[in-house]
Fold this sequence. Notes:
This protein is α/β, with parallel strands linked by helices. The chain is about 40% helix and about 15% strand.
Amino acid sequence: xxxxxxxxxxxxxxxxxxxxxxxxxxxxxxxxxxxxxxxxxxxxxxxxxxxxxxxxxxxxxxxxxxxxxxxxxxxxxxxxxxxxxxxxxxxxxxxxxxxxxxxxxxxxxxxxxxxxxxxxxxxxxxxxxxxxxxxxxxxxxxxxxxxxxxxxxxxxxxxxxxxxxxxxxxxxxxxxxxxxxxxxxxxxxxxxxxxxxxxxxxxxxxxxxxxxxxxxxxxxxxxxxxxxxxxxxxxxxxxxxxxxxxxxxxxxxxxxxxxxxxxxxxx
Length: 267
């Protein structure tokens, strides 16, 4: 299984020797590598060979491509889920495409997992084969009631089978965290399935949002990528306190990293 080597439950990129091409055009450097990784993964998926190990290889290769372009990646708090018995629900803010490529190698070597994704992602040319191989939970983002039903039913089914679920409660990717748009769907799923919820704070704006193609924005090596996992929370009652704790954890981490937040009277 492909995984990162952690030191005291944390990881920091070593200084990479950045090539001339990567210095001149980091976006072209990263996306050419990402394209190669996706095409190779898609070919394996079409053959029925894209298992968790292959998914981790794709994810680790993506992380290395980012580092080779000069992006520094820092990860902390992994002990909060690597020592946790059984599946869980991971709840994270959503900032860019980067986290969907990097999170698998952080999580899957320790916990089999899948994402909640937009239905359109399982129809993307080439990439669709990879997504379908990972048995994601799909939502339409048109009818909130239908999406809630899909997540609760599909998520519970996967969690009961031992597979963790990664959810981005924000309706769209954003450089900031607005607590008013950070819904509690992850809390509801964890409560229904009787599993803990693990918050993830992330700052991944080193991979920008594109003007024409949203998934392919500017790569900015001057920005450090951060991932922080919080303590696992058991959901009680309606989960209001746990939801507030998750929002507070993510908000505090973004402030610590110099990210954007929108204040709300939640605490």
